[in-house]
Design goal:
By secondary structure, the chain is an alpha+beta fold. It has 3 helices and 7 strands. Pfam families: COXG.
Amino acid sequence: MAMNMEGEETIEAPIGKVWEALNDPAVLKASIPGCESLEKKSDTELAATVSLKIGPIKARFQGQVELKNLKPPHSYTIQGEGKGGIAGFAKGGADVELKEQGPNETLLTYKVNADVGGKIAQLGSRLIMSTSKKLAGQFFSNLNEQVTKG
C-alpha cells in the first residue's frame, strides 16, 4: 500500500546547523519515534532498529537507511527499508529541502513516499496514513527540538 505526504517545519537555527543535524546519527536516533538503535555503516548508510505500534499491532523493524542525492546544505533524499517479521515491511523515502529564511531561521520541507505490506497493510489506509503523518510530524518536531536546544 503506497502513501505520499508532505509537510514543513520552521527551525530557529542557521541552515548549516540544521544540515549538520540531519546528518548526525545521534540527532537522528533521538528524533526518530521509537528508535532503539541507529548505527553508522558509512557516511551515507545507517542501520536502524525501530519499535512502533500501529493500531493493535506492535512491530519491531530492522532496517537500512541510505542518504542519497546530497546537496549540502540544501537537500537530500533519505531512503529506507524495514522488515518487521510477521507484522510486515515498510519502505520508502523522503526528499528533504532546507531554505534559509534569515540568519537564524531555516524552513525545512519534506515529501515522503512510503509503501507498507504484510499484516500492517491490512489495518486499512486511513489508520496507516494518520499514523504515518503523526510519526513524520513527530520526527521533524523532535529534530527541531534537538537542533534548537543546544
